[in-house]
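Hi all, long-time lurker, first post. I run a small reading group and we've been trying to get comfortable going from sequence to structure in the token notation. Rather than ask abstract questions, I figured I'd post a concrete chain and ask someone more experienced to write out its structure so we can walk through it together at our next meeting. Sequence below, copied exactly:
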Amino acid sequence: MLAMSDINCIKHLRNNKGLSIRKIEETLGINWRTAKKYADGEQVPQIKNKKKKGMMHEEKWGEIVSDWLFEDQKLKKKLRRTNKAILDELKGLGFQGSYRTLSYFISDWKKNHQDDNDQGFERLEHPPSEAQVDFGIMEAVQDGEYVDVHTLIMSFPNSNGSFAVPMPSENQECFLEGLKQLFNQAGGVPRKVRIDNLTPAIKKTRSRFEEVHLTDEFIQFQSHYGFEVQVCNPRSGHEKGNVENKVGYIRYNFFNKAPVIESLEDLTSKLLNKLTDDRKRLHYEKGVLIEELWEKESKHLLALPEIDYPVFKERQGKVNKYNEVKLDQTLIHVPKASNYSSIYLLLTWDRFKAISPDGEILLEDYRPYMNKRRVIPWSSIIKTWIHKPRSMPYSRYEKYLPARVRDYLLVDNLIIRRERLMELTNLLVTHDMKQINETFYDLIEQSQFGKDQNPYEVNWNQYDSLTPEHQEYVK
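-- Answer (accepted) --
Happy to help. Here is the structure in token form:
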């Protein structure tokens, strides 16, 4: 069949120019019958009935196999014929096709006949004041080292508004404290909260025979705030798809580069400001500002309780002969702990207290995971900068350098910058970046580069005095 532009050209030559069929044949170089068909015939669209082709559809084989598959459906699965067994029987009847041809036909047949249920999804309507909650792991930089941040996110599908709180872990204390802070940020309590099978909240997951069992601590928290809990089925993240998407949205928009933070409280404040500004965009479906939708939805929230809910956990501490107690997979030395038959630990989301049976506080400190860090691989990063010193100011890692080290490296002369990077690489063999920052001027004075190749003859001991007093360094 010719393209519509060619057909239109033939019509034009015949009707408007008055050419004969023979002349159109010679002009366009096409067959006489083709020219006659499109010049004088009517070209109207026709409905095409697509018929499947091939030996399984055009010969008797497809009908035979279909009959066998209908018979096998009534049997237990282990008694049904396999594709190989069906092929062997067909070969005995003179079938010349391949195993693959047969398998494609059987697979297509099963898709059309095996399940009568509708495989499509239903578009859901989310009422106001219904929230979804989930954790997402992000990455930040604190004190020059990587920190894994477990961000608890609460989204409202009706308005697409959301709130987020970074926590150091996903245990029960962090989960309940995170929910408490999220409610405070939202200015109220959602009427329904949908969660997946989080260990801090779920004691036993839903099965075919019984409903889900919540932990006593979570039930007490729920009773205090008055919200209803909806628990997703196991391995069914799509049942809370809004918050799943929101986790990715926050990760790729606010954590695409690990932010430099002073503390989790600092990161909480930054996230709150970013998510507040984010509500000034249009809803992806309703065409209205998310901020306006959230103002309407927030009126449906439950009021916050007047009495503050304290989040803590008490448990017995088992002491070894070295006065050590295991907490968060870490042994902690507790002075005089072996003097007592047992001690108990009072745990909050960020701190702990080791208390004797007499009520004496033996030790109070941050929980071990509050100091959990991962070292930035500075050696490999700086080696890349040595080969490409011009790229250093544009690198995502440049802002993670301590301020005095960064100022020392960022000179305009690329030759000097490369030499200083090489000197820093040598120092990283025996020191980590934190030690280099703390003893920076002493190390520069002792290094060969500091002694013999100081192009500006700078007294590094007096270097900080050149900096304005109000400027803060990231250490």
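A couple of things your group might point at:
Residues 414-430 form the longest helix (17 residues).
The chain has a mean pLDDT of 86.
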